[in-house]
Amino acid sequence: MKKILSQILLILVLTFATFTVHSEENCVPEFELNKSVLSQAISKDEEKGEVFVFFDQSTTMQGFTIDQPGQNNLYVNIVDDIQQVAENIGTDTIYQRFGSEINTMSDRDVAKVKTPKFYECSGSAVSCNNQFSSIKEIFAIAEDVPEATHIVITHLALQDSQLLASDREAITGPLISILKQGKSIGIIGVMNSFNGKIDNIPLRSGEYTDYVDAESRPFYVLVIGNQNNINRIKNEIEEKHFSNSKDKFKYALITSNPILQNLNVNKLIEENYMPAKLSREENYSFNYFDDYLPIYKFSANKKTNLKFKISDDLINVPGSTGVAKFSINEKMWTTNKVKCRDIKNWNEAKFGEISSIKQNKNDITIDLFAIKPLEKLFRGLRYFYKVDIYAEKPGKSEKEFSEWSVNSSAIEEFTQTNPVSYKTLNLEKFVSVLNAVSSDTFKKTLIASFAVNFELIK
Amino acid sequence: MSMKNIFRSVLLSVIGLSLLGWVSFSFTALNALGPDGDSNLLQWYFDNLVQSEEITASGMPWEDLAVSLYNLLTQMTTVLLSISVVAALIWSVASHFLNIDSPGKAKFYFIYWLIFTGIFMAAIVGIVFWFTKSAAFNAADYLSGSGVTTISAISFIYYFLVYYLGILLGTARFARSSILFGNKLPASDLL
Predict the structure, then answer these.
(1) ipTM of the complex
(2) Which of A31, A95, A316, A379 is close enough to B138 for a disulfide, judged by CB 3.0 to 4.6 Å?
(3) Is residue B86 part of a domain?
């Protein structure tokens, strides 16, 4: 008797379980989940490789090594920090100097980098007065050895000709290749004391002039490699020297993908991304479907406030240009069966645009049913509305550096004002070239997906 | 005043109500049966009463959605017909109690009839509004602006006529002058 009763009980339990599972399945229409592979791409980044450190050996760099009374000189310390980090992050560190050409450095030279002697020009007077740092060569090396991290310490003053035609292509070509391989470029700017000569300042007449009255001037650390190493170097410099004052430190991360992660892969979407009031609606529940898609289920009325908010911190790679434009892909299904167990099929609605997406200072907000308001939907129906949020365009970072940049057309007037703090020639143009390449290589990226499943009751 | 005359009035009122009331009755019965995919009525509703574009966009088959609209119309026409019948019978019976003790005094009660009819028509408007514009019925959402106007106009005219025919025949013979065109009715044993 006991055996029969337990068998009946088992059958009842199994039937109920099957029924419940079946009911839950009916509550979701059939659709294809666009699963992101973004997190896998990031995890690939972890491998160590060689580190190439390039020191700009042009004579003007000498000014950063000589103290200027009343000004804080961080160059020596920062070079020291970079050398230490470089030794730690890579399997092997290779030091190179660059000016008009690139040469490998001996250990003795590496020790001299922090002294003025390293920057003394040993060539003829003509060649010493016409130094253009060959930055394009470094990009070419970075393209050839993409698994390595490349660190460049330079004043980064580039002539117009270095950012035009074939010289520009010599930068953008390798850059496209570097970004496509998932690598990034970090630009760290440090306003430092300067006591030396700024040469090769272009004049309108086509001649060049010098300037020796600058007391401070920015130098730059460019880091080409994976984001983790770039951030490590940036954090090392920022935390050690600029924890209190940020005005003499600037940073931008240029990457083909400034997206940190897909929120679904890491199951980061939580109930509180929707207004707290929603959880007090009738029949409310919050669950992940297929361990991927979060679904907010509730009974709604025509005045229910549905705003989905995501913080920028969860989306953007820290320090990167972020995302300039977002878009949404939306799909909606309807059924007139309110209870899940009664639903036989869902009907795909063709409402066109339903919601709007707004980018605020620190977050993005999806105003659900802003375009197709709930008031216009029919009561008595159950609606399933799925939203995929995409990053459409990366942000730009040239404005970050505009304060320290001067164009070739304005540098003559700027120099005539006898500035104490000298700006970098064509810095903004250089960053905009990098940004343009980053925009071109950027691919529309799925950031998050979520769904709302509701019955419209009043 | 005799009970015989009152019963006669009630009977005549019912006949008057039936002259047009059968249409409402049939319509209610037709709606009560629910939508039939091939019926012209279902198509007529789709073309004339509802927000057809919105319904198409929702992806829902119209036949599925129409079930609740049929239910709405069944209940609304039942209430409208019932109130028309009740109003016509109340007036028909009440007309026997009007204090008409001299010739020409019946005309004085025209104002009474007018107020009573006004209240009846207001009730018709209120009922149509409650069914088509309030949150009482989900199916009201399907109705278009022109659909509500059509339903309101037809209900207003049609149920007034049902009621009017009911009171025209049912009003006490001596009080006929109190209703519109009541005195035009030929005096006979039957009426």
Answers:
(1) 0.83
(2) A379
(3) yes
